[in-house]
Amino acid sequence: MNYKEKIIDFDEAGKFFKKIKLNKKIIHCHGVFDLVHPGHIRHLSFCKSKADILVVSITPDKFIKKGIYRPLVPEKIRANNLSVLELVDYVIIDKFKYPYNIIKKIKPDYFAKGNEYFNNPNTHTEKEKQTLKKIGGKMLFTPGDVVFSSTKIINENEISLKYDKLKNLMDVNKYTFEKVIDVIRKFKNIRIHVVGDLIIDTQNECEAVAGLHKTPTLSLIKKSSRSYLGGAGIVAAHFASFSNKVTLTTVLNNDRLGKLAKKFLKKYNVNLNPIYETDRPTTEKNIFISKNHNLLKVNNVSNHPINNTSLDKIKKNLKKNNYDIVVVSDYRHGIFNNQSCKEIIKSINNKAFKVADSQVASRWGNILDFKKFDLITPTEQEARYSLFEQDLTIRALADKLIKVSKSKNLILKIGERGLIALGKNRPDYITLDPFVDNLKDANGAGDALLAYSSAALFKEKSLIMASIIGILVASCKCEKKGNLPLKISEIVSKINKIKDLMV
Question: Do residues 312 and 226 lie in contact, with contact meaning Cβ atoms separated by under 8 Å?
Answer without folding.
Answer: no
